[in-house]
């Protein structure tokens, strides 16, 4: 009975790990500069500078208020060979990046500078909610 319970616990652990990994997504990040107000989600309410605009690729306006952990994973162009800082940032979605948006998530320039060299302009990312 002890061996059977161990197998069950191991299987449950594997399912939890797979569910956690399944929530990580990949995309691209760009950035925009101030002023950050008004925003599509909060009007003139100041939400600080660790903010972002969501494209339709992640739900657009429906993602207002959600927090995302964003990590740079690499370059998208030849301009900056090693743009990533190795850091992650948590941002709150406060705005909408309309159709034609160049990135999956359009970060504030302050948030982008934490994860990447701003000279890159656009980087590959991994993000989780």
Automatic annotation (TrEMBL):
BP-aspect Gene Ontology terms: systemic acquired resistance
CDD domains according to UniProt = DPBB_EG45-like (cd22269)
Q: Which residues form the signal peptide?
A: 1-24
Which terms are listed as keywords in the entry?
Secreted, Signal
Segments forming domain Expansin-like EG45: 27-129
Q: PROSITE patterns recorded for this chain?
A: EXPANSIN_EG45
Where it sits in the cell: the answer is: Secreted
Primary localization class, coarse: secreted
Record-linked SMART domains: DPBB_1 (SM00837)
Keyword set includes Secreted: yes
Domain of life, per the record? Eukaryota
Quick check: keyword Secreted in the entry?
Answer: yes
Provide the Gene Ontology terms for cellular component. apoplast
Q: What is this protein called?
A: Expansin-like EG45 domain-containing protein
- Organism listed in the record: Camellia sinensis var. sinensis (China tea)
Output the lineage of the source organism. Eukaryota, Viridiplantae, Streptophyta, Embryophyta, Tracheophyta
């Amino acid at each position: 009975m002890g061996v059977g319970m161990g197998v069950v616990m191991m299987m449950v652990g594997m399912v939890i790990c797979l569910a956690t990994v399944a929530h990580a997504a990949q995309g691209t990040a760009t950035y925009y500069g101030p002023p950050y107000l008004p925003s599509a989600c909060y009007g003139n309410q100041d939400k600080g500078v660790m903010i972002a605009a969501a494209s339709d690729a992640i739900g657009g306006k429906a993602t207002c208020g959600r927090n995302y952990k964003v990590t740079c994973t690499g370059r998208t162009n030849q301009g900056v060979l090693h743009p990533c800082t190795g850091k992650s940032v948590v941002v709150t979605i406060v705005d909408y990046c309309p159709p034609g948006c160049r990135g999956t998530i359009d970060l504030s320039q302050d948030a982008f500078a934490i994860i990447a060299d701003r000279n890159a302009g656009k980087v590959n990312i991994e993000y989780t909610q």
